[in-house]
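Quick check before the chapter quiz. The format below is the same one you will see on the exam, so make sure you can read both the input and the output lines.
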Amino acid sequence: MDVTPLISADRQIIQSYNAGGFKISGNSYQGPVLVFPDRTMSWSASSMDNLKASDFDMLDKKDVDVVLIGCGAQGARLNKEVAQALKARGILPETMDTGAACRTYNVLMADGRRIAAALLPL
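Here is the expected output.
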């Protein structure tokens, strides 16, 4: 019995990640990315230490309930001010290492959740 979820071809699936970037739905991206179920874009963030609330301006409550923040090889805490700014907009930030964020994004996206992933390379 095939238990692979049926995922529409227009959905963004994170296929792999490494120190330089990501492979998402057959396309390679160098550096940080923002992944939504319907699109992927380069992200201007450079590290967890330098994140600002404005780095998440493209997230909209009407499209996203949760943003998974991939912190690189090691988990890290999100700056309190950034976390509070996201929560005030109705978006729940969840931080984890990048590998966990990629896997979690794929599962939640396949389940139809209103999700985005903000990913820093390893």
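If your answer matched, good. The chain has a mean pLDDT of 93.
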